[in-house]
Amino acid sequence: MVSVSAQPIAYGDVDHEAALKYAVQLIDHRWAQVIEGRIVLVSPMWDHEKTAARIRRQLDAKADELGCIIGSGNLDLPGSPNWYIPDLAVLPQELAEGAGALLPHQTLLVVEVTSESNGETDRVVKRKRYAQYGAPLYLLADRQDRTCTLFAEPHDLGYAVVDGPHPFGAVLHLPAPFDLALDTTGL
Fold this sequence. Notes:
Shape: globular
CATH architecture: Alpha-Beta Complex
Number of domains: 1
Order of helices and strands: HEEHEEEEHEHEEEEE
Radius of gyration: 18 Å
Strand order of the largest sheet: 3-6-7-8-9-10
CATH superfamily: tt1808, chain A
Number of helices: 4
Structural class: alpha+beta
């Protein structure tokens, strides 16, 4: 018979970031994010989904041409208490094959659509974090303000280039690799 002595794990020895992010993935039948260390359950409403769908439809052909996919998969922000599920992300198709969470810098574009409950998070917290983690383009569709803003050229302090806010109904140009005029009518 083998004797095994259980050694208690010291609280400081636990990787709390990994434990929290792992736990979020195990919440049955619910989408959950970790935003600044808080678990936030995601349950988009239909008007929110309508806005995301209208943006997605305009991106579909260009994504296919670029060999990309569009989805709402997990984005990890290692070294921070954050684990996001963007409303839309465009990324090279080969990165999605067999992947769990990806990193924001692996995307070509991240899109967030605000809701009453998360508007400030999308406008401030996620914009800052996406920039810090190198998401090259961040499109914010602000349903409360009825505007769209495109953020580009990420660095540690934010985005160097801000195009907008433009009122819904305006055409917003998405730069390379998209080179696409995004019609915001009906968002």
